[in-house]
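Annex B. Sample input.
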Amino acid sequence: MKRIASTGLIACALFLGVSCNQKQEPVEEAQEANEQAYEDTPQEDTQDDLSEFMTEAASGGMMEVELGNLVQQKAQHADVKSFGQMMVTDHTKANDELKALAGAKNIVLPDSMGKDHMDHITELRNKTGADFDKAYINLMVEDHQEDIEEFEEAARELQDADAKAFANKTLTTLRQHHDRAKQIKETLDKRQ
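Annex B, continued. Sample output.
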């Protein structure tokens, strides 16, 4: 009887240990790796800001590409499909530039999207037809507005000249995406 009770306690302890040791969110994991690399150095504060901007931008860029590919499979409206293809092309290019910049700055980027970005993909995978088109474009309008604000802040406040240049360059594209998404949203809203 004692052996069964002991085995049960060990099994519970292992279960709790495994469930408490689940993988951390990729963006936070990358940020922590960057914080540890620059801890107690003169660059610590500026590197933390740079890390936060770059890891969030990487996660968002991955989402844009993934959703753009999903659009090619699920969208009905030609303008939505075209917009999705533009997201794949433009954000793949920006993601590659960001990876090169991160490598040059010794910044670790996440290997996959953060939970908030993954949740958007999951939500859209469950939609079809006109509902999918509308939900995707609404997300693109909102997401690009947020991205513009984040990239403007980075262009203004980051200490790293190369990261500022990347933010400024990318802002032009993000503004074009935002304007186009708003145009498509107006078209889809008129169809109701």
